[in-house]
Amino acid sequence: MDNIKKLKGYVGHIKINEEGKIEESSNIDYPSKLVDIIKFNLKKGNEEAKELGFNKINGFAMFGSDKSLTFMKGLAIVVDNEKADWQDLFTYYTYNKTFIITGVVLVILSILLFYYGLLTSVFNFMAPEPRIYIPTILLLIGVIFLALSKSTFSYRLE
Fold first, then answer.
1. Could you tell me the CA-to-CA distances from 44 to 55, 57, 111 in Å, in that order?
2. Does domain 2-93 have CATH number 3.30.450.30?
3. What is the pLDDT of residue 140?
4. Residues 41, 72: contact at Cβ < 8 Å?
5. What integer pLDDT is reported at residue 142 of this predicted model?
6. Which residues have a Cβ under 8 Å from the Cβ of 92 and sit 6 or more positions away?
7. I need a surface site. Which of 92, 107, 121, 155 has the fewest CB within 10 A?
8. Spans of the chain below 50 pLDDT
9. Which residues, 6 or more positions from 115, have their beta carbon under 8 angstroms from its beta carbon?
10. Following DSSP, what letter does each residue of the chain receive, concatenated?
């Protein structure tokens, strides 16, 4: 949770469990009132989402004159409007760690296969094409995974 406090414009946060009970609260006055507001907005938002043909809403943002509230994945963050970086805030919520780990593993594996395939005699039994094509494909897939881990496309994958 220390990463939250490093966000630009951070004022405070509340972590809520599935039942709507407060698990953690930091720098928030009257957290129970804020939880009631969040529950109401989730209920109303889910009703509107069903009317529009969606299953549910994943989160919401409420903008005030000085401070704003964002909520997603059981975590509500209050930020100062003047200092907040909205791209960083929503990327924090949607940073897909699975994509990052997969991308890093594939890139490292492709680099190792390039090394073994071209600079050692380990893969001499293979024709030259698989020694180059397989690591190249793995490298491309790994880079794509790394790019998708922090993109607006990953907002939809969650």
1. 13, 10, 50
2. yes
3. 94
4. no
5. 92
6. 3, 4, 7
7. 121
8. 154-158
9. none
10. -HHHHTSTTEEEEEEE-TTS-EEEEES-SSHHHHHHHHHHHHHHHHHHHHHTT-S---EEEEE-SSEEEEEETTEEEEEETTT--HHHHHHHHH--HHHHHHHHHHHHHHHHHHHHHHHSSTTTTS-HHHHHHHHHHHHHHHHHHHHHTTSTHHHHH-
Structure tokens at 107: 């890139």
The pLDDT assigned to 157 comes to 43
Contact assessment for residue 71 and residue 84, using Cβ atoms and an 8 Å cutoff: no
Q: Which residues pair with 60 in a beta bridge?
A: 71
Q: Model pTM?
A: 0.57
- Which pLDDT does position 146 carry in this prediction? 85
Q: What gap in Å lies between CA 111 and CA 109, rounded to an integer?
A: 5
Position 21, amino acid: K
Q: Where are the domains of the chain?
A: 2-93, 97-157
HSE-up of residue 57 (Cα within 13 Å, Cβ side):
20
Task: Single out the residue of 71, 69, 67, 68 nearest to residue 57, CA to CA.
Answer: 71
Cα–Cα distance measured from residue 41 to residue 128, given in angstroms and rounded to the nearest whole number: 60
